[in-house]
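__Protein archive entry__

___
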Amino acid sequence: MHRNQARWLTLAVAALAISWATPARAQKTGESVGQKLDKAGQNIKEGLKDLGDAAKKQFAKAKESVHNMGLQARVYGRLHWDKALNDASIELGTSDDGVVTMDGTVANAKAKQRAVELARETVGVT
């Protein structure tokens, strides 16, 4: 065989070997990519589940802290954050049986009515 023919024959055999190996390798690569995608999807699902569990725990903590908050603090929070009562000066008193007393000044009768309404609607006020 001549040198050129040997080169062409070598190239042809190499090309044939590559063409036979490529589908198997591509399939194997495809499988590994698919497996990696499946694993990534599973990790995302687990992360979302963990995030949901963390959110539920935080909500439960917030709910518990509101229940543990004293009656006076709950009423104060409602009065303090109401825009109609921004300039109000109200002192609060509470008793163990859920009675709230308010003493102070408000801008007008409408603000007074709002303060009484907020206090009455507060959880634990009787």
